[in-house]
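To assess whether ligand presence alters the predicted conformation, the chain was also submitted together with tryptophan. Input:
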Amino acid sequence: MVEKKEAVFNPWEVKGNINFDKLVKQFGLKKIEKLPDEFNENVLFRRKTIYAHRDLPRVLTAIKEKKNFAMMTGLMPSGKFHIGHMMVAQQMIFWQNLGAKIYIAVADVESYNARNMSLKEARETAIEEYIKNYAALGLKPKNCHIYFQSNRSKNVEQANAYYRLQNLLARHATFNEFKAVYGSISPGKMIASLLQAADMLHPQLPEFEDKCPVIVPVGIDQDPHLRLARDMSKRIKEYKFDTLASTYHKLMPGLGGGKMSSSDSNSYIALTDTPKEAARKISKYAFSGGKATLEEHRKKGGNPDIDISFQYLKYYFEQDDHELQNIYDDYKSGKLLSGELKKILIDKLKVFLEKHQSKRDKVDVNKFIDN
Ligand code: TRP
C-alpha cells in the first residue's frame, strides 16, 4: 500500500508515497481496460490517469442504451483551486457532455467537522475557487445541480428526502465497519461519511432522478466512502438502489514531488496564479529528474518518470501523445535539459492560464447555485 513508515492514507489525510497498483488489490478495485472510443479522446482516460473502477460497465450500458444516468461527486472547499482539483472538474464536464445528469456536493458540513472550517468560509471558498473555475473550464448549468451539504434544497420534499436517507443509512453500518474502513473515527467523521453516502445515493431517490446508474469519479483516497455506501445501500430495505459505480484517478504530485496540498502554495499551481507566478514556482520548486551536471545529463540522460514537469505535461498540459513521447525520449537520452523541459511546461501553462482566466472573469456563478 504505502511505503514509508509515517505514511497515512485515508479519505482525510494522505501522506507518504503511494503505490497505486497495490491500492487496487488492497481495495478490491478493477483496473480500467478497454473503453469506448469517446473515452480515449479524453487525455485522463487515454493515459490511464483514471485507472481503476467499480462497476463502470453499468454506466457504459446506460450510455449505449440511451438510458438516464447521473454523475455524482463532491468537493471539499479548502484553499485555492489548483491543477490537481482540475482533474475532477474535467471529469464532470466529460460526463456532462456524455449526457449525465450532474450532481455536485459542496462538502461544507464535512469541512466543518473534519477541517474546522466555518460554513461561511466554506461557502465563499466553494463559490470563488471551485464553482467559478468549473464554469470557466466548461461546466454548463443545464442539468447540473450544485448544492451545499448544509443546505440541500429550497424544495422541502427534496431536502427531507436527502436528510432522511442520511439518517436511515446509520442503522446499516456497524461501528467496527467504520473503524475498519477509516482507521480512526470520530462522531464528526461518522456524520461526514453518512452524509457522503447520502450524497452519492440520493440522486436515485424518487424526488430526484429515481433509480438509475450513478458514476462517482473520485481520487483513489475516497474509496473507503464508496465501499461503505455500496454496502449500506444493499442492506437498506426501504430503498432500491442501483449499485454505485465509481472511477479512481491517481493523485497529482505536488511541485516538490510529495503531496499537492492546498495549505502549501509552493506545492501547486493555482488556476488563478499569473503565468509569471506559475513560471516562478516551476523554475524554483518543480522536482527535476535531471542529472546534477550538464555533462552528466548529456551523457546519461534524465528520468522523466520522476520529473514533475514531465508528469504535469502527461497529466494534462501536453495533449498530443506523439509530442509527449518525443519529450520523453529526448529527456531520457539527455538531448533535452531540465531547464528546457521546464520551459516547455511554463509555455503551455502560460497559454492555458491566460485563456482560462479571461473565461473565468466572465462567469456568472448564480446560474449554478440555487440556494
Ligand atoms: N469527501 C470528498 C473530498 O474530500 C468530498 C465529497 C463530499 C464527495 N461528498 C461527496 C466526493 C460525494 C464524492 C462524492 O473531496
